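Researcher: Here's the sequence for the chain we discussed earlier.
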Amino acid sequence: MIIVISYKFAFLCLQGWVIAHNSHVVLRKKYLDYERVNPYMGRWTPKRGFADAEHFRGLLDSMEHCHVTWRSYEHRRDVTLFQDVCWYSGWVMAGKQRMLRHLPKRVLRQYEYVQTVPRPPTTVMPLAPADVAAAFLEFALHVVSQQHRGDQVPDDEPWKHSDRYIRWFYHVSHPIIVNPPLEPEITVPRPVYQDVLVNQDWGRHPPDPRQVISTM
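Model: Thanks. This is the structure I predict for it:
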């Protein structure tokens, strides 16, 4: 049986992951009723405020490796064992019709492997919902092999990445997070005589209100 999660629940999981791994980005506090057997992302709850997206973009730009929790799960393996299905690479269902790509090689650092330059997600061709369900049932055929995982990160360098990764990040991934600078708007003054010509034309040929509204 395949458990289909909702898009809203998937977004809450993403929010919880960000809070658990990046103490510098979102102000957080410990959840008083949290129990160790519960998912790690439920340990924290965000504080109120900071609804402006520009605030978070600035924090992401100024983030350093010391602000990231690189090994948040190493003390929880006795509670939740790592499962091979986490290496599944392909489409997963989020709702009855919505499908999302699950590509572990884009986040190898989360698996304690050296992060390399990932392939574009568009190379994973879309599938029909029935084909997505069938592929996930046989997930063992679609996991990232040990050969393609690369090297594990050293104990003294949990942020390890390949030589070309940072250059790729700033040229490909980072511009998606940071909005491009807005171009200044240039207002061209309208000639005075143009208003006179427009009024004369409207006097001869009254405009259709529906046509005026459609152009607004």
